[in-house]
Specification:
The chain is 69% helix and 0% strand. The protein has four helices and no strands. The relative contact order is 0.12. It is a multi-pass membrane protein.
Length: 120
């Protein structure tokens, strides 16, 4: 395998780094949530990339099938579906918390919220 032929892993690495950068460096809570979603999308891409089996078919075994058939594993797709639901729930909860922080502090900037907490 050629290193440039694995472009999906390069995209995974770039998305992962962009999401991690946004989560760590951005002071705005909404931007942190967007970074978290980018990070999650990179993980989804990694699982889907690892699931690809060259020449693999759906794991449906017909009666009298040959034993040398290559099947794809369906478990990563199930894990991705579960992870998407958890990601949406996490995003919804995060946005609800951002709204409550905005109501309580008047801002969604992390450093301002922390300084207001220290002053109290």
């Amino acid at each position: 395998m050629e290193i440039l032929g694995l472009y999906n892993y390069w995209v995974f690495a770039i998305l992962l780094l962009i999401g991690l950068y946004a989560v760590i460096t951005k002071p705005n809570f909404t931007k942190k949530l967007i970074g978290l979603n980018i990070f999650q999308a990179a993980i989804f891409l990694l699982y889907i990339s690892m699931d690809k089996v060259d020449g693999g078919t759906a794991p449906i075994i017909p009666h009298g099938a040959a034993k040398d058939i290559i099947y794809s594993n369906p478990v990563p797709q199930v894990l991705i579906l579960t992870a998407i639901v958890v990601g949406i729930s996490t995003t919804a909860l995060g946005l609800a918390l951002v709204v409550r922080i905005r109501e309580a502090y008047g801002t969604i900037e992390e450093d301002k919220v922390i300084s207001m907490d220290r002053d109290q």
